[in-house]
Design a protein that fits this description.
mainly beta; 5-stranded antiparallel sheet; 1 helix; 7% helix; globular
Length: 73
Amino acid sequence: MNIGDKVKVNITNPRSYARGAAECLNGKTGVVENINSRMSICVRFDSPAKNWWAAQSVCLAFHFSENELVPQG
């Protein structure tokens, strides 16, 4: 996985996310924006994700593990 790669989110363990988050993030597409030293991959979405709690800011990007991302392209 490289910065700039187009990916689709495929969450394999929804219980590891906050309530409602997996449903809002799963299936989102975007571009790899950053990869940190712990292999957490930041994906900037093509369109904002739905909010999974009322006071949340707009979710334009999120960090995932590599096994939750499917290359597109």
